[in-house]
Write a structure and sequence with these properties.
Radius of gyration: 43 Å
Strand order of the largest sheet: 1-2
Strand content: under 5%
Shape: rod-shaped
Length: 350
Amino acid sequence: MKKLNFAYSLLLLLLASFFATQCSLKNTEDQLPFSFVENDFQSIELPELLDEELELEPALQPIVISSPSAARMIQNLDAASDPSELSEETKSNILLTKYIGEITTPDLRQHMLTEIEGLNEGNLSLVFFGRPSLDASISDVVKSVMANNRFKDLFPTLILPEILPITESVSPVELITISYRVSPAKGNCGKAAQDALDRAIRRLQEKRDGQLNEIESSLQVRIQEANQRLTARNLVAEQIYNLNLKISAEQVAKMLNAARRMRLRNPILAEELRLLALAKAVADQIFFQQVYQAALNVNKLIRDNEIMVATLRKQKLEAEINQNFNNEFRNAIATLERVLEACHNQGRGN
């Protein structure tokens, strides 16, 4: 009987010791310093954003190759005071008027000569900047002359730069949407770990949002700068256009002056020179308008490519930011699991 009582007492003592130990461990866990919890989460951070200056392609422009033959003819006509002083090249170029006679009716030819009579150094700009009386029939005749290979050496040549639109694309990186709640987070240490994780995630989200706002602002600035460069290039194109027309007007004026000097000695030659002067005036107006429009088109394509380069940079950085966030998010979850295990082990004196 005594042995039975002794065994019973020993069992009660063991049970009491077990529960006392568990309570002591729990109290010890709840009272432990949890600085190691916060320290483990401090390294969870997005890397700094690196957004270098964009490397833009050179702003190529259309190239105009002047006609050496036309330049020599203008120089010869400006210096000649008599038909005998005209070079063979100039005489050959004047034959262009015979082709005009072949493709026009007598009435249209007379209409063109009437237009010529009204041209002088003072009103040549009317031809270049548009003149109601200079109807489409005259422009059509001149376009036909310009398209004829027999006279191609008399007209300038336009060379367009080869600029291809950018068609590159960037695959986006989606943000992960996994739950990071560990349920349940036991004890004060577990709660501290969960709170530290919450702060780390908020820190990641705030920096991610800040970086996304930064690259969006950079994109808008770069778009604005691209548009400003477009405006500047278009202004230069307009200045070049006006300069080309001014030079052409001076050349046409020299041809008309030569026609007046030779009218008494050779009225037929003088008439042909006036017809040639009108053809040049109209041809230059058509050509340099084409050059100007080509420059505007090229400038717009350059601007569009610059904006595309800036947009691609933003998309690449956005994908990089999201990927960095995903990596650090997973790192934060792994850290939480590691810290909770440390909480468990420290509470038991391990």
